[in-house]
Amino acid sequence: MEYRVLGRTNLKVSVIGFGGIMVNNEEQDKVNQMVEEAIDRGVNLFDVGPTYGNAQNKLGPALKPYRDDIVLTCKTEPDNTKDEVRADIENSLEVLKTDYFDVYQLHEVTDKRALNQALGAGGALEAIIEAQEEGLIKYIGFSAHSEWAALKLMNAYDFDTVMFPINWNYWFNEDQGSQVIEKARETNKGILAIKALAQRRWQEKEKRHDYDTWYKPIFDHDELAELALRFTLSQDIDTAISPGDIRMLKKGLNILEDNKNRLELSTTELKQLKEYVDVYGGQLYPIP
């Protein structure tokens, strides 16, 4: 496993992280096994949130034996009030069986109303800053799915981390991602990439093979999956959070292990990936 420093936080994180939503509604014994196997393969970053069903409740017991050795990130909805965010923080700490979060984020800032509410008086950010002052949170971040939102957030407040889709299809098809990386690195913010192994939104009546993600993961095209993940990891990012399915986490780890020291795409491989955009790409965002 390769590890990188998460921007200015000095947290050392695995280049592939564990998307906590994948444990939603799974049996506790299975979750314990999923976590143990991920850690055995070098994963040390786990990301979860209260909107992921009962994922927090499942991850809490599974992560407890490893808490001192992992990086735990959590989040709250940006349009929650200050009091609601405080309740979110306290509940997440309790069910995740920890007394602090390494990173706590505004989750999925998608529209101007939620953004302004999060940054305004009595909003989510106030509660997060207060929790940081109390030692409940080490670093503050946000996630967004469009460049305009990410750039506006970074101009409004000096966040420590940024979570954003650094995805082959979104990058080449809609020119989303490069400006976020450039702006974040101006102040050495940590960058958590999402959707590295996403293809596009599901098409109507498309067979989903029991994948419960809102987008189609690249589960059926090995070459595309390899090029897509290597593309993301070769950008100036720190970690890529896995899709919300354990099969895709394992696929990503296998790709990484098979491509040690060769994440950068060759000219030929980059050309091939761009050609795949026309054949296998399509609309990814907004979330349907």
What brief labels describe this structure?
TIM Barrel, 288 residues, two-stranded antiparallel sheet, eight-stranded parallel beta barrel, 11 helices, alpha/beta, 12 strands
Describe the structure.
The protein has helices spanning 28-40, 55-63, 82-95, 112-119, 124-133, 147-156, 168-174, 178-186, 222-233, 246-258, 267-280, and strands spanning 3-5, 12-14, 16-19, 45-47, 71-76, 101-109, 137-144, 161-165, 190-194, 198-201, 215-217, 239-241. With 288 residues, the protein is of the alpha/beta class. The chain has a single domain, classed as NADP-dependent oxidoreductase domain (TIM Barrel, Alpha-Beta Barrel), CATH 3.20.20.100. The strands form three sheets. Strands 3-4-5-6-7-8-9-12 form an eight-stranded parallel beta barrel, surrounded by six helices. A two-stranded antiparallel sheet has the order 1-2. Strand 1 (3-5) and strand 2 (12-14) form a beta hairpin. Helix 1 crosses helix 2 and helix 6 (147-156) packs parallel to helix 8 (178-186). The protein is globular. The mean pLDDT is 95.
